[in-house]
Specification:
The protein has helices at residues 18-34, 52-64, 80-92, 153-163, 176-188, 219-224, 229-238, 252-258, 273-286, 289-304, 318-328, 337-346, 354-360, 366-378, 385-396, 402-413, 421-428, 430-443; strands at residues 5-8, 37-42, 74-75, 96-102, 108-114, 121-126, 130-135, 142-145, 168-172, 195-199, 202-203, 269-270. By secondary structure, the protein is α/β, with parallel strands linked by helices. It is elongated and about 95 Å long. The structure holds one RNA strand.
RNA sequence: GGCCCCUUCGUCUAUCGGCUAGGACAUCUGGUUCUCAUCCAGGUAAGAGGAGUUCGACUCUCCUAGGGGCUGCCA
């Protein structure tokens, strides 16, 4: 049986965005599902707009998402001779002709045009859109070689697909009209016409298709914001496809096993950052403890920076790290939040949230409370969350621990939210806790 | 303008003619809790409009409206 081969063929004219990368994801999944080959082709024939940086960014994003390709990257510009040879062939067979033309930007010159059939219907069965048909007369002849002699997308694309033996072309909806043209080229060349599947667009919150102008559309942006590649991958997959039941969070193996191009939606889907954020949280919860610990340590090292050594609380004590990770991981939604939630453990110059200070510390009587706590805490030898909680419980006499808990939290962490207070105090240790309570009483509380 | 495609809760979607229209995110309410988050329980919320086919239509057909794509010496 013939090997199934698909390709992702972006043009490196800007940073790869989520619409493009979803096409890559669907191609990849399709190939893995059927046991075929997934190829990467860089369509860099637009010399004026293609950049090496964009190509580099493309590689990084694909690698980040785990979109591995099976053969060496194919650069379209390296196949120019073949493109032109094929054009000669078309010229000779009467499927193409030269003509004087004036371009949009006013350049006049001789280009090669592909001659479309003048009658009949061009049709194909799109794997996602179903049967497609168009009258040949509705499609005009189109240029395939520029006046400077360079091949244009249409011819380069088709010739490369022939050369790479591509069997299924899965690409964006914006190419449907091209498909009618390309089919004619395949036929003029006597080459087998591949199967097509056109993917709907992803639209932004305004309902408009994503373009390179949408800042947040750049794939790398999500990485920088602390999204996990698995979450983005999973979310993008769900935008226009579902396994047929209520499952949404799927691992890579399940995706490969369940993915079917036929079930991909025809309609455009709106990108919902909130659901992506939720998905990210789901994946963060699933990170193995050891792996998450490494991320926490990385973030800690970054925080320590120049202050390293000085503020380091009990490094090397793995039990301490494990306890910290157990507290932090379940309430982390973005990797980037780590810095904020960890800073109070690693720096004494952590920032104070002005609102929290106002609400919890700048209140009459708080100073006395804090000073009282310094005295009481100083007497505690068994510095554990349990002991500390028992002590505050006793102080509050069942009337709610709020009046003690809130000021302490802000005094030692600078924030009004975070992990459980007593766990936090245990992690900080007695010495730091006392120092911070004292400092807050002296400088912030009333 | 022309050609092509699309239309279920705010959003992503399930439904292969029988629907009291299901799930997820978001949102709201209640519970748990020292905060935030989590977690648990529950609520609000949809078939663009109109004809037709049919015992029966969200599902099939047609029309209208709305949205999108293409209409380059871009890809």
């Amino acid at each position: 049986m013939e090997e199934i081969r698909v390709r992702f063929a972006p043009s490196p004219t800007g940073k790869v965005h989520i619409g493009n990368i979803r096409a890559a994801i669907y191609n990849w999944l399709f190939a893995r599902h059927v046991g075929g080959k997934f190829l990467l082709r860089v369509e860099d024939t637009d010399l004026e707009r293609s950049t090496p940086e964009a190509i580099q960014v493309l590689f990084e994003c694909m690698d980040w998402l785990g979109l591995n390709y099976d053969e060496e990257v194919f650069y379209q510009t390296k196949n120019v001779k073949r493109h032109l040879a094929v054009v000669e062939q078309l010229l000779a067979s009467g499927h193409a002709y030269t003509c004087e033309k004036t371009s949009r930007d006013g350049k006049t010159g001789t280009v090669v045009m592909f001659k479309m059939p003048k009658e009949g219907t061009i049709e194909f069965d799109d794997i996602v859109k179903g049967h497609m048909a168009k009258k040949a007369e509705d499609i005009q002849d189109f240029a395939i070689v520029r006046s400077d002699g360079s091949p244009i997308f249409h011819i380069a694309n088709v010739v490369d697909d022939i050369d790479q033996k591509v069997t299924h072309i899965i690409r964006g909806d914006d190419h449907v009209e091209n498909t009618f043209k390309h089919i004619c080229i395949f036929q003029a060349l006597g080459a087998p016409v591949p199967k097509y599947g056109h993917l709907s667009m992803i639209v932004n919150q305004q309902g408009k298709p994503y373009s390179k102008r949408d800042g947040a559309a750049f794939v790398g942006e999500y990485r920088e914001q602390g999204y996990l590649p698995e979450a983005l991958f999973n979310y993008l997959l769900l935008l226009g496809w579902n396994p047929g039941d209520d499952r949404e969070v799927l691992d890579r193996e399940e995706m490969i096993k369940l993915f079917e191009l036929e079930k991909v939606h025809v309609t455009a889907a709106m990108f919902d950052p909130k659901k992506l954020a939720w998905m990210n949280g789901e994946y963060i919860k699933k990170i193995p403890q050891a792996e998450f610990k490494a991320k926490v340590k990385d973030a800690a090292a970054k925080l320590l920076g120049d202050a390293a050594g000085e503020d380091a609380p009990r490094y090397g004590d793995e039990a301490w790290w494990d306890y910290l990770v157990a507290q932090i991981q379940p309430r982390t939604k973005f990797l980037n939040d780590l810095e904020t939630s960890l800073v109070c453990f690693f720096r004494d110059d952590f920032p104070f949230d002005e609102k929290a200070v106002e609400k919890r510390l700048r209140k009459d009587g708080v100073k006395a409370t804090l000073l009282d706590l310094v005295e009481r805490f100083a007497k505690i030898d068994d510095w554990t969350a349990q002991t500390l909680e028992a002590m505050i419980k006793e102080l509050s006499q069942g009337n709610g621990m709020g009046p003690w808990v809130h000021p302490i939290r802000v005094a030692v962490s600078g924030r009004g939210e975070g992990i459980g207070l007593f766990e936090m105090l245990q992690l900080l240790g007695k010495e730091k806790t006392l120092a911070r309570l004292q400092k807050a009483a002296d400088t912030l509380a009333l």
